[in-house]
Amino acid sequence: MKNNSVKDLLLNTGTQSQVKVNGWVRTFRANRFIALNDGSCIDSIQCVIDFKNFDDSTLKKINTGTSLEITGSLVESQGSGQKFEIIVSKLEILGECDSDKFPIQPKKHSFEFLRDNAHLRTRTSTFSAIMRLRSSLSFAVHSYFNSNGFYYVHTPIITTSDAEGAGEQFRVTTLDPKNPPLNEKNEVDYSKDFFGKETSLTVSGQLEAETYAMSLGKVYTFGPTFRAENSNTSRHLSEFWMIEPEVAFMDLNGNMDLAEDFLKHLLNHIIKNNIDDLSFLEQRLTNEEKTKPQNLRSDMSLIDKIRFVIDNDFKRITYTEAIEILKNSKPNKKKKFKYLIENWGADLQSEHERYLVEKHFKCPVIIYDYPANIKAFYMKLNEDNKTVKAMDILFPGIGEIVGGSQREENLDILNCKMKDIGVNPEDLWWYTDLRKFGTAKHSGFGLGFERLIMFATGMSNIRDVIPFPRTPQNAEF
Ligand code: 4AD
Ligand code: MG
């Protein structure tokens, strides 16, 4: 007899005389009712045993966490709460679980505690729901691009360039840290290193993706990226996943249209395919909100917030307009912002982004045409010579979720911009080559995958939406 998943059993339309299912015990009540979960869906299946048919030593081994193989008949449930249940005829203990030592108890655990037990936290309903949504969103990323004529490119993880120019890279080396070879200037001689150059983990696949856009037309990367920024916030990871489409012959407006359509597709996908997990997380969030003071509570439920993003146009404003709004805003006038907005040219902090999205517009906002000197070197210079064709998308509760731009396709301007920030154009000769051989306007963006999952699940800490988070001082598991 083949194994059934709990999901398939619960989706059944009729009863079945013989079914077999494997899973882990969530709860065992009254020596009679086992809630068995196998991770296939949010629900557990109720398995009813007649204790007279099983010896005491077997019953004692049925604890939260025990793995079981159960055979029995699938019948319409007598009790409320589930449509079907299994009347158990055979029960095999696959793996015992010492209930005194098992960290995951059938009660509420703090997220901090569960982070310390990240290898077991997906045995809880909350984390299994989050990780199923993560999987579903990954699938939706690929299906969106696949059905829109994009090719998937695997950009390298080990690189010699710092695409974002922020100097936040993790070095990759095989040199002996205690006794590295030195050059005549007494500096570490990376020509003796594994790759013959100083290499790092990538902060972005963009530069390589651009080379593929300039031949395959429409491409995207979706992979891990690494940033050694020492910021211990609830929105930053040292290792995170980024989706970066890059399209030849597309300008900044096309880029904004693509990003908005893409985000709406992803959110629509989970509304259509993952409503059970979303409803569970919605309830969790509603309960959490109830513990907050009235003025800090959201007036929308999780699914309402998702639908709101799908159904409404994102507000598009220039950086200059954003600065005007912020300058005249209450928190700026009352000096409530940590960083007051005084002049054009100021970098926007997350407090400003959140004000614009959550207080002023109350919807996702795209800010574009930023000052050149606060953005990366590869962004296309506007005719005003002071702003670049950059765009950031800001989401309620999250802040920046997407960063992108039209790329500088003019060789002379690109060379100047590189030199200005101290990048030697010769080090990126292959990147500047694109501007020599059939250059064309092109654009792309990066979506921080975990920030999207935060929005989709209502989780407020980014460490809770990736299986094994890497953050400063933390690389356990
Ligand atoms: O704005 P960023 O730095 O843009 C780039 O890397 C471009 N090369 C993308 C492109 O144009 N192809 O990063 C893009 C997004 C941010 O908007 C944010 O959502 C996410 O990546 N991100 C992070 N997510 C988690 N932890 C971090 N430390 C992040 N840094 C950026
Ligand atoms: Mg950015």
Mean pLDDT: 96
Counted by DSSP, the helix tally is 14
Query: From the coordinates shown, what is the CATH architecture of the domain at 6-102?
Result: Beta Barrel
Q: Distance between termini? A: 36 Å
- Radius of gyration from the alpha-carbon trace, in angstroms: 27 Å
Overview features:
OB fold (Dihydrolipoamide Acetyltransferase, E2P), globular, eight-stranded mixed beta sheet, binds magnesium ion, binds 4-amino-1,4-dioxobutan-2-aminium adenosine-5'-monophosphate, 14 helices, five-stranded mixed barrel, alpha+beta, 31% helix, 477 residues
List the helices and strands and how they pair.
Blueprint: E1 3-4, H1 6-11, E2 16-29, E3 33-37, E4 45-48, H2 56-60, E5 67-76, E6 84-95, H3 111-116, H4 125-147, E7 151-152, E8 158-159, E9 171-172, E10 199-201, H5 206-216, E11 218-226, E12 239-248, H6 252-273, H7 275-290, H8 302-311, E13 315-318, H9 319-327, H10 330-333, H11 350-361, E14 365-371, E15 387-395, E16 399-406, H12 411-420, H13 429-433, E17 442-448, H14 449-457
Parallel strand pairs: 1-2, 4-6, 7-11, 13-14
Antiparallel strand pairs: 2-3, 2-5, 3-4, 5-6, 8-10, 9-10, 11-12, 12-17, 14-15, 15-16, 16-17
Helix pairs in contact: 4-6, 4-7, 6-8
Residues 163-164, 204, 206, 227, 229, 236-237, 240, 242, 244, 400-405, 444-446, 448, 450-451 line the site of 4-amino-1,4-dioxobutan-2-aminium adenosine-5'-monophosphate (4AD).
